[in-house]
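Sequence in, structure out.
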Amino acid sequence: MKNIFLLTIISLLISCSSEQEIKLIKLVGSPDYSESELKLSSVSGEYDFSFDVLNYNLGEQTEGAKEKGLANSAKGQHIHFIVNNDPYSAHYNSNFSKELEVDNNVILAFLSRSYHESVKNKKAYVLTQISKDKTKEIDLTKQFLFYSRPKGVYKGEDTKKLLLDFYLVNTEISPKGNKVRLTVQEKEFIIDSWEPYYIEGLEKGEVNLKLELIDERNNLIKTEFNPSYRKVILE
């Protein structure tokens, strides 16, 4: 009986010690692209978009992509195109079509490295609004937090490090000001610097994430698309 009891205690200790700790780690060493620009040159009809891309090569692999250990697009650098804070679509050419399904559409487009990290300079994004009903338009001068990564299904080595990336518009975050609160599998992190991060220590299966733009008192800022909820799968 005593041996069975000891074995049970040892089994519990091993189980507890083997549980992975979820960690949020700053991603460093990415090319800066401080001079890169994205401009919306035209929208034809409702669905055909044309962008001007300056000092940035779409379709090119970002320097150091393999060393990052993150999910990386074999097609290279691209544009993340987000409509109403829904999951983005990736575009590797500056001209493309995108169907808009609702009456009012807030569109954020920004330059992305091949491993899906956004370029965060003030000229590397476009925020616009396309509306069939002007009464449903929103104020684009508000503070916004848009969700970008992680997204979708991750397999094999890609499950070890998940890029966390989001886009801030008309706001800044700092230790004494606004912040971003990340909740992943019920573990909470407070982010006070707009930089890329990666998440480690996730178990295989379904992963639930929430991103919130909060004020200096940790209260949710009342603005469209806040908070953001996502679910990804690790296989």
